[in-house]
Specification:
mainly alpha, globular
């Protein structure tokens, strides 16, 4: 459910968030704009019924811990 409807850029953004990257770092490593990254994070949080990037990060951390 968490990963449904995400493309490779979305997944790359999630990986970058988990490693603690800032928007600027993501623009460099993912070769995209800060606005694109912010838009995609906002879209992901809304699709999951979350209100912030912090909530998304918390959910991601919980999700990755379940697999361990």
């Amino acid at each position: 459910e968490l990963l449904a409807g995400m493309d490779s850029l979305d997944l790359d953004i999630l990986r970058e968030l988990l490693r603690g990257a800032r928007y600027f770092d993501m623009t460099e490593s993912l070769h995209t704009t800060e606005n694109t990254i912010k838009y995609r994070i906002k879209r992901m949080t809304a699709a999951m019924g979350l209100k912030s990037r912090a909530e998304l990060l918390k959910r991601l951390e919980e999700f990755t811990m379940e697999g361990k």
